[in-house]
Specification:
about 400 residues, mainly alpha
Length: about 400
């Protein structure tokens, strides 16, 4: 048997992008929750609350002054700030559960070293697909997040070279009370610029670290189910196998299948409320972001930061929908493989009865869900239709 899978393969090594991002923002489940971490976490939380408070104040000011385009821009950032704080809370609240999921993946990688070459290739294929999810998020989050400070520095550099230097904020906010008068005083400006830069880097690292996790887990499950499909196809292929040997092979498949079902239930327990929240917020983020882009085009400008943000918003909900749909499709394929594995010609009544029970259980879709909907491409399409309706309403009212 050849060694297709490396001896030192593990979750942290394969999905190093998520690991580094979560360690950067101190949310990684394996980080010890000691005194040093508490200080770091409280500091991040305080800065996040300050950012959210400033955004809420700006929203209130813009609505009172009927600056609805600016208000929608601040609403976008407020939703992002609340979302990443919620995700951090998920990682804290379900720390042990997420660690157990990572541990199961590592155990499966360890077992895969003894698999056949074909089965090892399947495990490696889906691990590499999970790694690509992380790379997609790096490209999306970094490019979107980097546009804000780069644009501010370019505009300040341009004003300097034309002889009319101006301080340009990364993100324009309205400050309460006397602070508004000091927003362009160099010391205060630098402090505010660093605050928004912190928010930019922190939110980018949260999206890169957190969002690939569930797609990675779902892809891993798809690989494990595909391995069971191969084993099912070979279960009754050798007429010389004794009934006891067939029962033992079937028992191994059932035990692994139960582990897969349990794995999916843990994912649902941990992330159902989050995906319900994501679906609702994405329904509003899409039209709000599109409105920012169209408003800038009407004014003869190109709003690069929100064009990038628009693609990131789509990716935010499309990724889990796509991979949950893939998991559901893989589960359907497994049910068909179970039906067509040749069980009906086997002489052992116990085995035939067991396969029938397995087929009955397999009729329940293998899919991640929100509170009300299965997360799949149909749900993504439904969300897009609702977002488009809101966008049309905003255009009719404010454009």
């Amino acid at each position: 048997m050849s060694k297709i899978i490396d001896d030192d393969i593990n979750f942290d090594k394969v999905f190093w992008i998520s690991r580094k991002a979560m360690r950067l923002n101190r949310s990684h489940p394996y980080i010890a929750r000691d005194k040093a971490w508490c200080i770091q976490f409280i500091s991040i939380l305080i800065l996040s609350v300050v950012c959210i408070s400033l955004l809420l104040y700006s929203i209130r000011f813009d609505i009172q002054n009927e600056r609805f385009a600016d208000a929608s821009k601040n609403v976008i950032m407020a939703i992002v700030a609340v979302t990443i704080t919620y995700k951090y809370g998920i990682l804290l609240h379900f720390q042990e559960s997420i660690i157990s999921l990572m541990r199961i993946v590592n155990e499966d990688y360890e077992l895969a070293k003894e698999f056949t070459d074909e089965e090892q290739r399947i495990v490696l294929h889906f691990a590499m697909r999970g790694d690509k999810v992380g790379k997609f998020w790096v490209i999306s989050a970094v490019t979107t997040g980097a546009i804000f400070p780069i644009k501010a520095f370019i505009l300040m550099g341009k004003s300097y070279f034309v002889g009319d230097f101006k301080l340009i904020a990364m993100f324009e906010l309205k400050y309460p009370w006397i602070l508004e008068e000091y927003k362009y005083v160099p010391v205060f400006f630098v402090m505010c610029f660093l605050l928004t830069l912190f928010f930019d880097v922190y939110s980018t690292s949260m999206y890169i670290g957190f969002d690939p996790l569930v797609p990675i887990f779902m892809l891993h499950l798809c690989g494990q189910i595909n391995i069971l499909k191969i084993r099912l196809s070979k279960l009754f292929s050798d007429p010389s196998d004794s009934d006891e040997l067939v029962r033992e092979k079937l028992r191994t498949i059932i035990l692994k299948l139960q582990d897969i079902y349990s794995f999916i239930e843990v994912i649902k327990t941990n992330f159902t409320m989050l995906y319900e929240f994501n679906m609702k917020t994405t329904t509003f983020l899409l039209p709000l972001t599109a409105f920012q882009v169209t408003e800038s085009l009407r004014n003869g400008e190109v709003n690069l930061e929100f064009i990038g943000f628009f693609t990131g918003v789509i990716l935010h909900f499309f990724m889990p929908c796509y991979y949950s749909d893939l998991l559901m499709e893989t589960g359907d394929d497994f049910r068909m493989a179970l039906y067509s594995c040749g069980w009906e010609t086997h002489s052992d009544l116990r085995v035939r009865r067991t396969v029938l029970f397995m087929m009955t259980r397999a009729t329940k879709p293998l899919v991640i869900s929100t509170v009300f909907y299965a997360i799949c491409l149909d749900t993504f399409a439904k969300m897009c239709r609702e977002a488009y309706s809101i966008f049309n309403l905003m255009n009719a009212a404010w454009a």
